[in-house]
């Protein structure tokens, strides 16, 4: 299986980069993993709804350019379905069993994802009703994907 994480923005904090690198290394035992960063658009403090949509649309176009036709797309979305770690493990396992060897998890910028990206998504996943910084979400996602593979393989870790 090939897993891509397509994310808006760069990670600046060293401690988050270190965590991301650690989980990428751990996950690489189970599948091919890559992170694709697309530039984020600067959003002023007092932004209008129209400007917000324009920014999400620009970021969305950059995201969509990095999604191949044969890719199963999972959008991280507050309105998506919440899964337990065990359910996420089963979800990933079932993607592989159904022949989906290319999977992309998409993390939007601070304003979220464009309608076009959400429409392209095959599944919308919500980690929590709480809001997390999108940089930290990358690390949380990687940890859960790693946990999912450990569960799938019956290996200790997730308790």
Q: Which features characterize this protein?
A:
single chain, 159 residues, alpha/beta, Alpha/beta knot, five-stranded parallel sheet, 5 helices, 5 strands, 43% helix, globular, S-adenosyl-L-methionine, rRNA processing, cytoplasm, EC 2.1.1.177
Strand content: 15-25%
Name the overall outline: globular
Strand order of the largest sheet: 2-1-4-3-5
Number of strands: 5
In total, the number of domains comes to: 1
Low-confidence residue ranges: none
Helix/sheet category: alpha/beta
How many distinct helices?
5
Classify the helix fraction into a percent range. 40-55%
Overall pLDDT, averaged?
A: 94
In the CATH hierarchy, what is the architecture at level 2?
3-Layer(aba) Sandwich
So what's the CATH class? Alpha Beta
Name given to the CATH homologous superfamily: SPOUT methyltransferase, trefoil knot domain
**Oligomerization state of this entry?**
single chain
Rg, Å, rounded:
15 Å
SSE string: EHEHEHEHEH
State the major sheet. 5 strands, parallel
CATH structural fold name: Alpha/beta knot
Q: How are the SSEs placed, and which strands pair?
A:
Layout: E1 2-8, H1 14-27, E2 32-38, H2 49-65, E3 72-82, H3 85-97, E4 102-107, H4 115-120, E5 123-126, H5 134-152
Parallel strand pairs: 1-2, 1-4, 3-4, 3-5
Helix pairs in contact: 1-5, 3-5
